[in-house]
Amino acid sequence: MFGGGYVEQQLRGILRPGVRRLLPLLGWLHARFGHEGGPDRAAGTLPESDQHRVSDYWSKQFEAMRTDNSYWLNNKLVEESTYRLMTDTPKHWLEWLLNDYFAEHTFARSLSVCCGDGAHEIQLYQSGKVQCVSGFDISAGAIKQAVARFEAVAAPTDRYWFEVRDVNALELDGTFDLILSTGALHHTTNLEVLLAKLGRLLAPNGYFVVVEFIGPNRFQWTDRQVEIANQILSTLDPCYLRDGHQTRFERPSIESMLRSDPSEAVRSADVYTLVKNHFDVRYERFYNGTLLHQLHPLLRADLANRRQRDFDSIVRLILLMEDLLIKNNVLPSDFVFLICQKRDPSARRSG
């Protein structure tokens, strides 16, 4: 799942004009510490009923997301702008990673954390740079789609491996010289344990690549984000908005987040610091998303990618405003691209 776990799919059903529910303290505790027990639950896993709900949810999402223009990165202007922030080129970040950053590298075994439907993994295989591609995901439906991608190109069965596994209770043996986590860590409750396990699974000279949403937990956007987003919306003619009339951007309720996907952004705000505590970062780029990620689903998606100069100008101006606000430290970036290696045992770990 690229960047934010395709957050817009939840936003479209959650963000509606006038939603202003106050959450009871029990709801907050439920979201922060899980449905059963407290923060010291040994495995940090979702209850079985929630695991099934997450699995079913993502089984249905991937195909729809590929063609949904309301998803921000399906807008070609946003896609190119984002890739330039990530890599200084208009190339897809994975193409750049394999052919530019890793131009002199090949890999024996890759592992994809929460691989989804295998869209990135088939690129790894077809690049010829990875001998054996591996991945796991909690969604059985997504794993079937991933396997089908490899079967469709007649990939030998010893060149790939996919299984249904829970990221919060991961048990794997062996080592991998390339580990990818694209939109997976912000769905993980048991982050510290997972990152320690990935560190053990990573070969001594291997690489851990992270493409992640690092914004507020459970999409509880900051007051400043909400205020600026609504100021932008208020300046737009309603003909450019999804519902054809003025609307407001609101935080989703935690209750609604739990209903749609209990794993979504469960500890997203902790991801960046914890990754840096467990690994040495060799390459770091923030790729924004603090405004347009939330606003794009509220715009007229049918106008995207149609060379509509007025609509495209609006998107470009939001991209520019977002970038200026982030560069001037008014807003933080909600997404990051990291290329990491094993932590030097002699390096001092920050708290």
Task: Summarize the SSE layout with pairings.
Blueprint: H1 8-14, H2 25-33, H3 48-67, H4 76-87, H5 93-101, E1 107-113, H6 119-126, E2 130-137, H7 140-152, E3 160-164, E4 176-182, H8 191-201, E5 202-213, H9 223-235, H10 254-260, H11 271-278, E6 279-286, H12 292-295, H13 309-327, E7 335-342
Parallel strand pairs: 1-2, 1-4, 2-3, 4-5
Antiparallel strand pairs: 5-7, 6-7
Helix pairs in contact: 3-7, 8-11
Structure notes:
The protein has 351 residues and is an alpha/beta fold. It has one domain: Rossmann fold, CATH 3.40.50.150. The chain has 13 helices and 7 strands. It has a 7-stranded mixed β-sheet. Helix 3 packs across helix 7 (140-152) and helix 8 packs parallel to helix 11.
Distance between the termini: 29 Å
In total, the number of strands is 7
The CATH superfamily appears as Vaccinia Virus protein VP39
CATH topology: Rossmann fold
Low-confidence runs (pLDDT<50, min 5 residues)? 1-43
Instruction: Please tell me how large the radius of gyration is.
Output: 20 Å
Alpha-beta content class: alpha/beta
Oligomer: single chain
Question: Keywords for this structure?
Answer:
40% helix; globular; 351 residues; 13 helices; disordered N terminus
